[in-house]
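COMPLEX REQUEST
Ligand: dinuclear copper ion
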Amino acid sequence: MERTERVMLWIGGVVMAVFFVAVVVLAAGFGVDVPGCITEMKPFERDTLFQRTDGRYELHVVARMWAYQMPPVELPAGSEVDLYLSSGDVLHGFHIDRTNVNLMAIPGTVAYARVRFKEPGDYPIICHEYCGVGHQQMVGVIRIVQ
Ligand code: CUA
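STATUS: Structure written out below.
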């Protein structure tokens, strides 16, 4: 094996090791989580907010053309929300700004993500999947108060 080949292989190995360590550090240290699709849960029909315990909430969202129909959501800072998302008609997206929540609302399925809102403020929600002529007005907001 040529010396240059060996050096390039070593560089490639080191770069892969650095990326692997970065992924582990982000996942463990910053709580970065991959959203999941729940198969054993029946898709729900209505948007509902449940309070589980102090600071723990469960939010069911049904995306429909062209709105998230959930009631105004106002939660205290530090709240942890288990978010369940379904669709009543077509494919929709669900991205909560300033968080890592980025889900697809797929008819007949339930997507899941957990998010903690540390800072007070408005967290806009947008549909990021083209879903028809009203797509651009499909927005929502989660308000976090002190
Ligand atoms: Cu819903 Cu785009």
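REMARKS: Residues 63, 66, 92, 127, 129-131, 135, 138 surround dinuclear copper ion (CB under 6 Å). Residues 1-32 form one domain.
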